[in-house]
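seq as requested:
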Amino acid sequence: MTNLLEQAINCENPHQAAMIIRDALGIESDDVVNYCFPTTWPADRERRARYIGEWLKTEARFWPDGLFLTCCTLSRRF
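struct tokens:
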């Protein structure tokens, strides 16, 4: 999972970054990512990580409790 997060954070394209995580987690809808990601993807890796972390926290509201805790832990690492 961490390698996939790193790939997404290092990705220059926000749509590709979202696809990496969506595919890994089995997320089917773009609704939350469209809400959380900016229209222009920042060049700064830390800002990208924050956007991805916010997306995961928002998405996790719809997941079972165990996945929510994993999501929050991973988003704090970056």
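Residues 2-77 form one domain.
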